[in-house]
Amino acid sequence: MIKGQSLTSAAALLTLAAAAAIAVACAPRSDPLVVNRGLPTPTSPPVVGAISTPGANQLLAEAVGVVRLAQWDDKRIQFVNALAGYILVWGYDYRVDIVTGEPADYQTGLGSNTVDLVLEADEEWLSGNSATAKDLGAFSAVQNGTRIAIVNGMETQYADLTAFLTKVSPPEEKIVELSSTISAGRTGIKPEVAAIMYLKSNESEWTQWVTPQAVAKVKQAIEDGKTSLVNRICIPTGANGVGTGGGQSGLCN
């Protein structure tokens, strides 16, 4: 009788152990591959930009003014544009836009509000179109049949621009020499690089054309390795923002 009771007790203990094992196995437990079960996924706070006007492209800082320079497929005009443009951008904080076309396109451009300045305009044409543009003298120190033509009204609107252009006079031989170094391709010398070569090697000349403040700013730009005519960035802040921008972008007004 005692033996039968012992067997019954053992069977009961086995039943309880099995039930306990099943309960543990079925109990809810954390999935090691799931983090923060039931908690909302945190999101990053929105980035707050310096400019928040929707649907606009704006500059980090306003330019003094915009100068649209006529240019065509000629190394000489590319060099003089780069030289004057570098000083205007980095020394006087203008925005310079290069308007490319055929050699004679500036003649209509000056009268149709698409070009502001031609550094080597035909002297004969300019003398017969004083109602369109003003003659600021020759860019080169040597008379070569070309003159600086600025659209009428701009010479009084931007007095510092006019003062610079009436003084600029790099030697003709240096224009010829540095223009000849310009070449295309990835390893070629760009017009801006040729202009910086002149500025580095002829400080006693070009510093006579500009204000002391502009001298300091141009020197700083060269020291900082600035090699383009872009000194500001366009900030796209809306759905229509393009995101390229810069000194030569029409979006940066």
Explained architecture:
- There is one protein chain.
- The chain is an alpha+beta fold and 253 residues long.
- The chain has a domain at 64-231: Periplasmic binding protein-like II (D-Maltodextrin-Binding Protein, domain 2), CATH 3.40.190.10.
- Helix content is 40%, strand content 13%.
- Helix 2 (75-92) crosses helix 7 (172-179), helix 2 packs across helix 8 (191-201) and helix 2 (75-92) packs across helix 10.
- The model is unreliable at 23-60 and 237-253 (pLDDT under 50).
- The strands form 3 sheets. The protein has a 3-stranded antiparallel β-sheet with strand order 4-6-5. Strands 1-7 form a two-stranded antiparallel ribbon. Strands 2-3 form a two-stranded parallel sheet.
- It is built from 10 helices and 7 strands.
- The termini are far apart.
- The longest helix has 25 residues, at 2-26.
Order of helices and strands: HEEHEHEHEEHHHHHHE
Please mark out the parts with pLDDT under 50 across 5 or more consecutive residues, or reply none: 23-60, 237-253
Helix/strand-derived class? alpha+beta
Write the CATH architecture name of the domain at 64-231: 3-Layer(aba) Sandwich
Described by the principal axes of the CA atoms, the overall outline is globular
Number of β-strand runs: 7
- In the CATH hierarchy, the third-tier topology of the domain at 64-231 is known as D-Maltodextrin-Binding Protein, domain 2
Helix content: 25-40%
What value does the Rg take, in angstroms?
36 Å
Separation, N- and C-terminal Cα atoms? 107 Å
